[in-house]
Amino acid sequence: MKKKHFLKLALLFTFVGGMCVAQTPPSKVIEDFKPSELNQPGKEYPQVNSQGYARFRVDVPEAGSVRVSLGLGGRGGTKLEKMEDGSWMGTTEGPMDEGFHYYHLTIDGGIFNDPGAMNYFGSLRWESGIEILAHDRDFFALKDVPHGNVQQILFSSKSTNTVRRAFVYTPPGYGKNLTEKYPVLYLQHGWGEDETAWSNQGRVNLIMDNLIAEGKSKPFIIVMTYGMTNETKIGGLKSFDIAPFQTVLVDELIPYIDVNFRTLNGADNRAMAGLSMGGFETKLITLNKPAVFSYYALLSGGVYAPEDIKDKSTVKLIFESCGSRENPERVNSSVKSLKEADFNAVSYVSENTGHEFLTWRRSLKELAPKLFK
Q1: How confident is the model at residue 71 (pLDDT cuts 50, 70, 90)?
Q2: What is the pLDDT of residues 134-170, one digit of tens each?
């Protein structure tokens, strides 16, 4: 794939998941609204109903106008109306896509977070979050199963002259059997996000806990670190250079993980995956460093062509995915070409989703059981 195609892919910023594709509204809104599961403790709003509508209430009696950025695509979000008690309320014009969405309030021209909702780092800032209940949410639900651990680590980066942060998921049982070693997945966030995204928005730990409990996935370690992407502003991607992050990941973070965690070394025991911009990074690094990883996964983050890979014997798996509202034809065509060239390649298309976290949660669910076979 030529460089210009990489840059086009990088323009698919993660935060566009908050802009949902318009659906045909039901003839009547069902009044079974309940507080969003991502609300601040004790907060009644925002709320969602069984059809996927979202309803908001904000107490700003002195405001002249209030709008919620969350809304149907291209219609400017949801305009709230002032109530007799001074609060502002409103309901989305139609049902939203299932899954997680970022949003914020615009009050008299200023941008603010919703005090009723918890915050998540995306769009280069901490944004409010809301969850529209997905029909298949069971795979990322909190269940009564053995749970792994997500811990923050700090590691020294001489190349950037900084101490950097990563989050590490260790599977259930890691702390009990002190002789067992594990393979490692290095998992990257999207543009505008940071190393908190996969565990907060993506629920990676719950997905893995459930898969392991069901015997569908081998236990493995997952490492999530900041991808050094946010320094590149919109419109400046032509100047993007993978080298600084590649050095941090390959020469500094991986050695730290191998020393401080019980890992199985070697490319056969390492995978790299990323969503959106993280997929862009994954492709560049896996092609630049074929001796480091043997499992590659691009989640709404582009595709490989057979001619991209110089030595197919080093590649155990290529996984490519996207939402059905993105470019599934391109993903399926790429995997067809890879299979014809004798690669172990798998495609996955998430139904009725776009460039959003439900696509990537589902993609991880499909990817994990295929790793480290």
Answers
A1: confident
A2: 999 999 999 999 999 999 999 999 999 999 999 999 9
Domains of the chain, by residue range, sit at 22-96+99-132, 139-370
Looking at residue 117, the DSSP 8-state letter turns out to be B
In this structure, are residues 171 and 208 in contact, taking their beta carbons and an 8 Å threshold?
yes
Q: Give the closest residue to 92 by CA, choosing from 44, 21, 42, 16.
A: 21
SS3 23: coil
Please, which pLDDT band fits residue 76 given cuts at 50, 70 and 90?
A: confident
Phi, psi of 50 (to 5 degrees): -70, -15
In degrees to the nearest 10, what's the CA dihedral of 333, 336, 338, 342? -170
Are the folds of 22-96+99-132 and 139-370 the same? Answer: no
Q: Is the pTM of this model over 0.70?
A: yes
User: What pLDDT score does 240 carry?
Assistant: 81
Q: What is the CATH number of domain 139-370?
A: 3.40.50.1820
Fold (CATH) for 22-96+99-132:
Immunoglobulin-like (2.60.40)
* Residues in CB range of 186: below 8 A, 6 or more apart: 222, 223, 224, 225, 249, 253, 254, 270, 271, 272, 273, 293
